[in-house]
Amino acid sequence: MEYLRLAKIPPALYVAANYVLTYFRQFLMCLGYLIVGFLIFGLKFNQNSNYFGAFVALVLGIVACLGIGMISASTIWLLGAWHGVEPINWTLGLFASIVSGVYFPPDVLPSWLKMISYYFPHTYAMEAAKLALLAGYDNNQLVPYFLRLIVFSTILILMGIYLIKLSSKREQEKGSLM
Asked: Which region, left, alpha or beta, applies to residue 42 given φ > 0 means left and ψ of -120 to 50 means alpha?
């Protein structure tokens, strides 16, 4: 943070630029997978797919995960998680893949794990994208998923902003941050 302040670079600009670059790289990788799938494996797209609905679900899921990222980043100063893996990112990374439908549908999980899946925005983003692409759900049918993702996004972004400001303020009070 001190380097950013000395260079007169707003921290928000630095963070935004890092996110944009990361998502741009991921987009290029995804595009590469699609091209390879199309050229080598004969990938075909479903004519009934709702690409816009899938895109909206993924964007809302990304926004919710940005909030989680901000909460996670705040733990560096709030909990002193400088060395090793900070706890929020590690815990959510562990559970999100298992319970949100990355490897298998949440419906096949034991009831206690299925209940945990309802508290992850990943679950709703994955399910909405899957229904839009594979089942051809239109946007009206996806509204319940979109609303849940909007609620998750709002809560997580507001929590993230609050915790980042709190952690920055505490570090300034300690004198370790200009």
From this structure: left
Domain that holds residue 79: 47-174
For the chain, the average pLDDT equals 86
Contacts of 71 (CB under 8 A, 6+ apart): 88, 156, 159, 160, 163
Query: For residue 111, which amino acid is it?
Result: S
Distance of CA 32 to the CA centre of its chain: 21
Based on the domain organization, do 40 and 52 belong to the same domain?
Answer: no
Is 36 found in the same domain as 52? no
Residue 27 — very low, low, confident or very high, per pLDDT cuts 50/70/90?
confident
How many domains does the chain divide into? 2
Tell me the per-residue pLDDT of 34-62, one tens digit each, with 9 for 90 and over: 899 989 998 887 889 999 999 999 999 99
